[in-house]
Design a protein that fits this description.
There is one protein chain. With 586 residues, this protein is α/β, with parallel strands linked by helices. An eight-stranded mixed beta sheet has the order 7-6-5-3-4-8-9-21, sandwiched between helices. A five-stranded mixed beta sheet has the order 14-15-16-17-18, sandwiched between helices. Helix 4 packs across helix 5. The chain is globular. The two termini are 41 Å apart. The relative contact order is 0.11.
């Protein structure tokens, strides 16, 4: 784990002056708390017990923070007493964003277990690999996955012994509305049978060494790698990330609980920072099995004691309905979500004014998309950047109204974080301002490494620095811009072309909804840039028109050599374009 860079060194960085004053004034004497991750829920329960924690309409499920804590604690007690869960045991959760997931997550942490993220779109073979790699003994799954997990246990290729199954949109309904509960069968147990009123003796946690979670990378090169996230990594990430929206760090009371207080000005229409503890609401759209969902859409929301609206599947109509009905103040996800909303023919009829902040990440946000979307909401769009290996928190454009923000940039390093650009070949030479190179960074949020993969860990973590594999540049003010990915760079006649630079131009065309540029092998040029494009409804433009539009605006070697119009782009479960799938089409 990387240590916090010397504070005097950080104060000399070019980006330091762009931190809000409350942040700058507290950096010298603030120590990030060394507490277990579930302390976030305990703290919100202590200081905001009656604030609504979760609203999930399909199950008529609404609970306060006090009740969410009680449910999680009783679930933890059941794991300890009935399932003999011991400190350090790995528990896999295979589910979309349902309230049961949230209860189970905190139950596992309170019982001393380690959460293992299993993306619910994975195949049986992919899940089997992750279960075996993590050594998970218990799994918690939604009812639609029960048959697959029966096959996995029968296959006897993992350490899995017990599976806890919840019935979606049923188990958490009021008793008089609930269907008959399922009966236990060998190795499979109903979710509602886990809860116990037995006393819970929470095991001692070493936040810097004990694992809170194992989050798997997408596995775009070889098999997925399990990123080991300590309690300290996750708590630090939440505090650093949320300082962007609140301009402050939580204090600690004499019992070791976090004290989150609002600025009085932010409770008025003349607010400076958008987020309000114990008041606001958020749509949890990013999967909780993905690092963005795990931190930003789950633990950060719990830390802030705001109301979480779980969204098992992203559908534009549902998101817009929830924003309109519940006056949602916080939402976000991959930039493609904004593109999908903006592409609607009835966009002028949609009321997004309640949104105080829309956060975007997971992929670069095209400037044209971001600026158009911000005009539709009542607050601010803030773009950021990070990797699973950095527990989601690396750089960000601050979200206060007086902040300096630069469209198209990923902002400045978060507090206690240092980022620099080094040569992409050796990673040893720091690059000058406005020069492309590999982005590397350190800080308390950098994960402990890859599970069972010491060689890959050594390649990723060198001398305390996380080598990201992303190509970026820093300007004179300390703002960073992603220009490509090492493996995505297109080499045309010896020239390096970052796909994003061409994509930014394509997005300026009024008829374009989404796009992605990939390289196609060419005998003469090495590779040529090819653009895959989806069009807005009723747009009538040809590939030749798009190519001409782009090629008038870029240098000769960057010209798009081919444009292919498609109905949709292949996407991962968390909104990233699958460039490998597009490359296969070529």
């Amino acid at each position: 784990m990387a240590e916090i860079t010397d504070r005097k060194t950080l104060a000399q960085m070019p980006w330091y002056r762009f931190y809000p004053q409350p942040i700058r004034s507290s950096l010298n004497d603030y120590d990030l708390p060394e507490v277990p991750l579930y302390r976030l829920l305990e703290s919100s329960t202590k200081y905001y017990p009656n604030s609504i924690a979760v609203v999930y309409e399909p199950a008529n499920f609404i609970v306060s923070y006090k009740d969410l804590y009680s449910l999680s604690k009783r679930f933890a007690a059941g794991l300890n007493h009935r399932f003999k869960l011991a400190k350090g045991d790995r528990v896999a959760i295979f589910s979309r964003n349902y309230p049961e997931f949230l209860i189970a997550m905190y139950g596992v942490l309170m019982a001393g277990g380690t959460y293992v993220a299993c993306n619910p779109i994975l195949t049986k073979d992919e899940v089997t690999y992750q279960l075996a790699d993590s050594g998970s003994r218990i799994a918690i799954v939604s009812d639609d996955a029960k048959a697959m997990f029966k096959d996995i246990i029968t296959g006897n290729m993992t350490a899995l012994q017990q599976v806890i199954v919840f019935n979606r949109d049923n188990d958490l309904k009021p008793t008089f509305l609930r269907d008959e509960p399922a009966e236990s069968e060998p190795s499979f147990h109903p979710f509602m049978d886990v809860f116990s009123d037995a006393p819970l003796d929470k095991p001692a946690i070493d936040p810097k060494t004990d694992l809170a979670g194992i989050i798997y990378t997408a596995g775009t090169t070889g098999v997925p790698k399990g990123v080991m996230v300590s309690h300290y990594n996750a708590v630090s990430s939440c505090l650093l990330y949320y300082s962007v929206y609140t301009g402050t760090f939580p204090a600690m009371d004499h019992e070791g609980f976090l004290v989150c207080k609002n600025h009085s000005k932010d409770l008025t229409d003349a607010w400076e920072f958008p987020m309000r503890y114990g008041i606001d609401s958020a749509i949890a759209a990013a999967p909780w099995t993905h690092m963005m969902g795990f931190i930003a859409h789950l633990h950060c929301s719990v830390m802030a004691a705001i109301t979480i609206f779980p969204l098992p599947e992203f559908k534009v109509d549902k998101v817009l309905e929830m924003i309109r009905k519940w006056k949602i103040s916080f939402a976000g996800g991959a930039p493609q979500m904004m593109s999908m909303i903006l592409s609607r023919p009835d966009i002028d009829e949609q009321d997004l004014s309640s949104i105080r902040v829309w956060t975007t990440g997971g992929a670069p946000c095209p400037v044209a998309v971001g600026t158009a979307f911000e005009k539709r909401i009542g607050g601010i769009i803030t773009e950021g950047y990070s990797l699973t290996e950095a527990t989601m928190s690396s750089t960000k454009n601050f979200a206060n109204r007086s902040a300096t923000r630069k469209w198209g940039s990923i902002g400045v390093p978060l507090p206690f974080t240092e980022v620099k650009i080094v040569d992409a070949e050796t990673g040893t030479q720091e690059m000058p301002v406005d020069t492309d190179g590999e982005l590397i960074h350190n800080g308390p949020q950098v994960a402990l490494g890859y599970l069972n993969k010491p060689e890959e860990t050594a390649e990723m973590l060198r001398n305390g620095w996380l080598y990201t594999g992303d190509i970026a540049r820093m300007d004179a003010d300390g703002f960073f811009r992603i220009t490509g990915r090492k493996k995505d760079i297109i080499i045309y006649k010896g020239y390096n072309i970052a796909p994003r630079m061409i994509e930014e131009v394509i997005y300026e065309h009024p008829g374009v909804s989404q796009c992605a540029v990939v390289g196609q092998k060419d005998d003469l040029a090495g590779e040529i840039p090819v653009a895959f494009v989806t069009l807005k409804e009723e747009a009538a433009i040809t590939p030749e028109e798009i190519a001409a539009f782009v090629n008038d605006k870029v240098a000769g070697y960057k010209k798009v050599r081919k444009v292919i119009i498609v109905d949709k782009l292949p996407m991962s479960g968390f909104g990233k374009v699958l460039r490998k799938e597009l490359a296969k089409l070529l």
